[in-house]
Design a protein that fits this description.
The protein has 190 residues and is α/β, with parallel strands linked by helices. The protein has a domain of 118 residues: Rossmann fold, CATH 3.40.50. It has five helices and six strands, in the order E-H-E-H-E-H-E-H-E-E-H. It has a six-stranded parallel β-sheet. Strand 2, helix 2 and strand 3 form a beta-alpha-beta unit. Helix 1 packs parallel to helix 5. The two termini are 16 Å apart. The chain binds zinc ion. Zinc ion binds next to loops.
């Protein structure tokens, strides 16, 4: 977004997966009461923001398509996550071709490793992609980051490296979001 004085507000983003990154990986969580947000999540998000980045969640939530929980329930989880961590935005994909809820059992361009959620974020925020990162705990996160030309970060705090669905080569591997937030280079004063 260009202001009238020509000053640009463009800044990079840290795209964050939800489960295993901000919250404990517990399979399909369907109620906000059951989400277990890591105690350090809020502090890490504010470090990311104060280093000059947007903190934007991009999460596959195929539990909606599979009929495990509704999109309304997912929206309450998003609201809770936003309040508890201070992230700038949350994008989600409720789809899955193998789902049972017809409305959501479709192919889409947003289910990671596709890049639809990130593209949507880029339309709504003025993001400097070349200095942005994708942080996740699963192969699809790393593949999505690579598909979008981001630097990729794999965390060990979620699914676990030994359970990766396929071999991926992230640019960085850290134990958890705290280690990543400490590593993240300062962009400029936020
Ligand atoms: Zn989708």
């Amino acid at each position: 977004m260009n202001r009238e004085d020509g000053f640009t507000s463009r800044k990079p983003a840290v795209f964050l997966d939800r489960d295993g990154v901000l919250t404990r990986e517990k399979g399909y969580v369907g109620r906000w009461e059951d989400m277990e947000i890591f105690p350090y999540a809020k502090d890490c998000v504010s470090q990311i923001q104060s280093k000059g980045y947007y903190a934007i969640v991009v999460t596959n939530q195929s539990g909606v398509a599979r009929g495990y929980f509704t999109e309304i329930a997912l929206l309450s989880m998003n609201q809770f996550l936003k309040e508890e961590t201070g992230v700038d935005a949350i994008y989600y994909c409720p789809h899955c071709r193998q789902g049972i809820v017809p409305e959501y059992a479709v192919s889409c361009n947003c289910r990671k490793p596709a890049t639809g959620m990130m593209e949507k974020a880029c339309r709504e925020y003025d993001i400097d992609i070349t200095h942005s990162y994708m942080v996740g705990d699963r192969a699809c996160d790393i593949l999505m980051g690579k598909n979008a030309g981001l630097r990729t970060v794999l965390l060990e705090s979620g699914y676990g490296l030994e359970k990766l669905e396929e071999k991926v080569q992230p640019d960085y591997i850290f134990e958890d979001l705290q280690e990543f937030a400490a590593f993240l280079p300062q962009q400029r004063k936020a």
